[in-house]
Task: structure prediction
Amino acid sequence: MNNIVLIGFMGCGKTSIGAGLAQRLGFNFCDTDQVIEKDYKRTISNIFAVEGEEYFRKLETATITDFIGKLADTVLSVGGGLPIQSGNAGLLRQLGHVVYLKTSRETIKYRLSGDTARPLLSGGDTDEKIDTLFKLRAPVYEGAAHITVTTDGRMPEDIIDEIIMRIGVKP
Ligand code: S3P
Result:
């Protein structure tokens, strides 16, 4: 599988880097949140509000399970919580090269301050929520990824160059 799977915390730039990377490689670009919203004709916020997080996690797992054996020449960006669910990291590694976009907690906090689109951060102290999730998730991302690419203070093109070079795909 020559697909590239981008994982990382909310706000690390998976969608924008993913779209740019796909364009450079002439690949398709796909994002699990967008696929779920399209397939179920609802927003992620609505799914969380009505059915809850557990139900959303099942949709995420079903979405990537369905991709196995079907996805080719694709850059896939996945929601920040998807690799955390047991078994999903293995599925992602079956789909392609898994790249962790590693962004510092400070940058994430800066980017997500005032965010209203992400149900996991709504209500209460956003910084505290980010701290808790970050501690839990960062090691899982590291373990799930074939390669880790740092993003702080870098231009998207520079990050894309590094991914292409380290994976060895031909644009
Ligand atoms: C989530 C991240 C979101 C989205 C949902 C839950 C998470 O995607 O899937 O709000 O658990 O980290 P992004 O990582 O693209 O923001």
Observations:
- The domain at 4-167 is CATH 3.40.50.300 (Rossmann fold).
- Residues 26 and 116 are 33 Å apart (CA to CA).
